[in-house]
Amino acid sequence: MKMVWQRLGYVGGSFLAMLVMLIMLVSPVRADDSQSQTCQQANVALQVLGSGGPEIDDGRASTAYLLWVGGKAKVMIDMGGGSAWRFEQSGANLADLDAVLFTHFHVDHSADFPVFVKAGFFTERTQNLPIYGPDNQGKGDLLVNSTVFVDRLFDKERGVYPYLSGYFDANRQTPFNYIAHDVPVSGDALYTAKPAPGLDISGIPVNHGFLPAMAWRIDVAGKSVTISGDMNGERQTLERLAKGTDLLVAHAAIHEHTQGAGAFLHMKPTTIGRIAKQANAKKVVLSHFMNRSQNRMEAMTAGIRAHYQGALAFATDLSCWVID
């Protein structure tokens, strides 16, 4: 029975508690077409397009998430390698997106962005698409900000893909433009934006080691989803952003005994549990697994359960989480 529940994505708690969670709270299903159908039929749902990190032997696409509202994909968070293919598998339409959010610009969170830019040519989209990502906080030698990210990729003279520069130039004749926004990360202030009616986006700086990074929250139709992004928990800002959130996606790239760079960059399970408890998150989904963490479900659950007793689940690529 234990293995059956693990395959469904649930670990820990009593049989009855897990059954209640399955029926009433979140409903992940197998990685097939039924997941996309579930997201498209829900009022609000989050689909995990990529549940992995930068490795290419973990069996997962790199980090990416899709928020569905009223059967349409409205917000994409991160665009790691493989996310374009997962986007296609999900049945989403690029023309429906109202915003793209980047937690930061490491390659496993942003590599597929040029794929989406080119794909826009083959859609019926005519409305500009805003792109939000963290400023580089003066650390341009390690990570760039949103505007530099798109400039270095698509500038018509110096870019890697100059033939796509028209999508970033309002004076060029393209059906729409991608508009980059740099979000300040020097303090702990909350950043807010409203890219579409009824869609409220909030972001707050987090510590990904000393690298500039953001956690994001989306509020829509009376529901909320919060994405931690990569962070170590030292800044203690995610607790405020995620307060009372319906669904908290926490990146679980390391196990409790990880040391060195891994622990400097990422949250340990006990940190995830502490933050989830302080935020009073209704549900927690773990994602952004790496080989060092994805085969330690029982131990990771024990670390989280030391603080947090709410609904807990493990993401797979294309898993859909209905928020009802």
UniProtKB/TrEMBL annotation:
SUPFAM superfamilies: Metallo-hydrolase/oxidoreductase. Residues 61-288 form the Metallo-beta-lactamase domain. Keywords: Hydrolase. Coiled coil: none annotated. InterPro entries: AtsA-like_MBL-fold (IPR044094), Metallo-B-lactamas (IPR001279), RibonucZ/Hydroxyglut_hydro (IPR036866). One of its GO terms (molecular function) is 3'-tRNA processing endoribonuclease activity. It holds the Pfam family Lactamase_B_2. This is MBL fold metallo-hydrolase.
